[in-house]
Specification:
InterPro entries: PqqD-rel_X. This protein is α+β, with helices and mostly antiparallel strands. The chain contains 3 helices and 6 strands; from the N terminus they run E-E-E-E-H-E-H-H-E. The chain has one domain.
Length: 87
């Protein structure tokens, strides 16, 4: 399965210390996100599989201990929130 995030024009992000406020224009909902959700959304600029996303996160954010199950759980949360969809 591939995952995709909305295009950059559909999101307005504001950093708030350790959180990111993210307004999703399509739904009209503002989400308060903590790491790694903003990084996942920033990385999903094109549809990716779980393994492709993990590799990109390891490369771009120098993850010391990547956890595939944890990433899958975060993707499930982002799908439930409407910020990520299966492609």
């Amino acid at each position: 399965m591939r995952y995709r995030a909305p295009g950059a024009d559909a999101l307005i992000a504001t950093d708030l210390d350790h959180f990111t406020a993210l307004f999703h224009r399509t739904s009209g909902i503002t989400h308060l996100l903590a790491s790694p959700a903003p990084e996942i959304l920033a990385t999903l600029t094109t549809p990716m599989t779980l393994d492709e996303l993990m590799a990109a996160l390891v490369r771009d954010y120098a993850l010391a201990d990547p956890d595939r199950a944890a990433l899958s759980a975060r993707l499930d949360e982002l799908i439930a929130s409407g910020l990520v969809s299966p492609a």
